[in-house]
Structures are given as structure tokens and as C-alpha cells.
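User: Fold this; C-alpha cells only.

Assistant: Input:
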Amino acid sequence: MPSAPDPAPRRPSQPDRDRAARVFAALGDGTRLALLSRLCEGSPRSLVELTEGTGLTRQGVAKHLGVLEQAGVVARSRVGRESRFSVRQESLADARRYLDTASRQWDEAIERLKGFVEG
């Protein structure tokens, strides 16, 4: 017996859209994407570690990390005298779900248009 079709995707709520927009805005910068990629490679990293090899000052990297932190993409924790930064996976998962929903909605709209044109 064929499986039941997936239920219609739930439209994201305004708070979901607002959270996703903050994440997408934060990720809309190449430097921040590069920092996020480095953080995704493993354990939490310090500002000094994240600055190495970037050609940026610590102040510049700190500013970018602040944007990522404000958007909920990274978390800061204190270890002794230094701050360590790590990825907040749940924030990225929420953004991914938003994109998945938008993708399904577009696919459905294209299918409706195709049916209209061909019908």
C-alpha cells in the first residue's frame, strides 16, 4: 500500500520568520560564513584562534562574532579569562527547517502552475 502523502507544510509563524531572517542576515557576509565554517570543524575556539590566518584584527573578528551571537548562531562561554565560541546547532536547524518549508511551498506552487498550463 502506498504511503500517505506528507501533510501540507505549516506556514512559519512570524516569530519563526523573524528568527530565520536574523540568521540569514548574519550569514550574509563571507567573513562570518568563514568563521562559522571554522567553528563547525570541531570544539569551541577562542577569539585568538579564530583570528589566526584571517588577515583581520581581533577587534574585527570580535565584531563579526558579535553579529553571529546576536543572531543566535554562536554561543560564547568563559573558560578562565578567555571567551570560547561554539556553534548553536539548534539555530541552524531552525533556519534549515524554514528553508525546507519554503522549498516545499515553491515546489507545490510550480506543480499547481504546471497543472494549470498543461490542463
